[in-house]
Amino acid sequence: DAKTTQPNSMESNEEEPVHLPCNHSTISGTDYIHWYRQLPSQGPEYVIHGLTSNVNNRMASLAIAEDRKSSTLILHRATLRDAAVYYCIRISYNTDKLIFGTGTRLQVFP
Amino acid sequence: KAGVTQTPRYLIKTRGQQVTLSCSPISGHRSVSWYQQTPGQGLQFLFEYFSETQRNKGNFPGRFSGRQFSNSRSEMNVSTLELGDSALYLCASSPFDRVTDTQYFGPGTRLTVL
User: Fold this and answer.
1) If you average pLDDT over every residue of chain A, what do you get?
2) B100 and A100: CB-CB below 8 Å?
3) Which of B21, B43, B57 to mutate: most A Cβ within 10 Å?
4) Is the peptide bond before A7 cis (omega within 30 degrees of 0)?
């Protein structure tokens, strides 16, 4: 059964980098990797997505392993506003099948 | 642009009743997806609509249905409610597809079934 696993929780101090891992056990070559985050009482918010190569945007960076069986979301300098649950999601380009990770609750300390 | 809006935000129903939830996507977005979020199961995909047609469907019973109108607004309906249907129902829109595009989520409708 396809699984996308993430640690339940992680902690960071403000202004430190944070590396959030995600393991995709049966990822295929056409599965896009998306990251979303969810603050309390809000809907998820897009962070970043990619297919094969590393991606950067104003919010974060996404590092994708060469075999694509894992990815890492990198927040370069954590702020208190980054405290949220981060979800890694696989979406197949061919079948559109979507698999959610279990989510990582990130705590950021001042 | 206005974000994705969902109505109502909160709803309380009893077992056996039916419920209709509404979602207004961002203007110009043609893809609307629905998700169920519960503490036990996490986020699960319900279905996706594009240009008034259901494009994809998750593993939910037929009691869960939806539709999309010509203005891209979407509704989902749950008939014969069960206690386990209590959840946060999220709607998300994207310009064309949720695979290569960004999805924009609404705040959700919290459904409580008593």
Assistant:
1) 92
2) no
3) B43
4) no
Q: Which of B43, B102, B104 sits opposite A87 (nearest CB)?
A: B43
Pairing type for strands B53-57 and A70-75 reads unpaired
**Minimal Cα–Cα distance from B71 to chain A, Å?**
22
Residues B15-54 have pLDDT tens digits of 999 999 999 999 999 999 999 999 988 999 999 999 999 9
Neighbours of B73 (CB within 10 A): 17
Which of A48, A43, A42 lies closest to A74 in space, CA to CA? A48
Give dist(CA A49, CA A69) in Å, integer.
Answer: 15
Contacts of A95 (CB under 8 A, 6+ apart): none
Contact A100 B102 (CB under 8 A): no
